[in-house]
Amino acid sequence: MIRIAIVDDHAIVRAGLRQFFADHDDLDVVAEAANGRQALDLVRDGGIDVLVMDLSMGEQGGVEALVAIRARAPELPVLIFSALPEAHYATALLQQGASGYLGKDCDPEHIVSAIRTVSRGRKYISPSVAELLADTLAGGGSLEKPPHQNLSQRELQVFLRLAAGEAVGNIAEHMSLSIKTVSTYRARIMEKLGLASNSDLTYYALKNGLIQ
């Protein structure tokens, strides 16, 4: 039996996944969480074989949670299940330790296959993500690498919070950083993306499908 924890800020999504998984004899949903902080609590408690996690969540999103979970439980498979486009996130998150990435528009049976795959300690790579990875290894092929993919993990975390309208002081508190450190990250992000203001960050994030 594969013990699953579902992390999504929409109760209806969690309920739908729980009901769907109940039709499979080898899958058992043992825990749920609505944000990254709660997900980390579940990881601390243990008893989970696979974590299925969204990216866009309030309080703490999936990108930050993935970094924290990898630090605490590096062997726990984390399957990202998100409405955000694979092209912008999949390869970066796989490099950061995700076990797989699936869009919420996927065929339902694909997520079952993905959970079974990652529970065996393997990566789940969908055909579309495999193509993205191939392009990356080949130097990008015909696809130009977007500037945000040059951000470090911490810079990406700060960028997403700034783009969502969060104040520097709140970001510092949530990420256990000083305001000066967050401001330094902000300056680096602006330079790497060629932007001048927080409104530019928000527009860039919306344009590239990084926030909804």
Word description of this protein:
- The protein is an alpha/beta fold.
- The model has no long low-confidence stretch (mean pLDDT 86).
- Helix 1 (11-21) links the parallel strand 1 (2-7) and strand 2 (27-33).
- The protein is globular and about 55 Å long.
- It has helices at residues 11-21, 36-45, 62-72, 86-95, 108-119, 127-137, 153-163, 168-174, 179-193, 198-207; strands at 2-7, 27-33, 50-53, 78-82, 100-103.
- Strands 2-1-3-4-5 form a five-stranded parallel sheet, sandwiched between helices.
- The protein has two domains: 2-126, Rossmann fold; 147-207, Arc Repressor Mutant, subunit A (Orthogonal Bundle), CATH 1.10.10.
Q: How are the SSEs placed, and which strands pair?
A:
Elements: E1 2-7, H1 11-21, E2 27-33, H2 36-45, E3 50-53, H3 62-72, E4 78-82, H4 86-95, E5 100-103, H5 108-119, H6 127-137, H7 153-163, H8 168-174, H9 179-193, H10 198-207
Parallel strand pairs: 1-2, 1-3, 3-4, 4-5
**Count of distinct structural domains:** 2
SSE order, as H and E?
Answer: EHEHEHEHEHHHHHH
Binned, the helix content reads: 40-55%
Number of strands: 5
Radius of gyration: 17 Å
Main sheet strand line-up: 2-1-3-4-5
Question: What is the CATH domain class of the largest domain?
Answer: Alpha Beta
- Mean pLDDT rating: 86
Strand content: 5-15%
Largest sheet properties: 5 strands, parallel
What is the name of the CATH architecture of the largest domain?
Answer: 3-Layer(aba) Sandwich
Low-confidence stretches: none
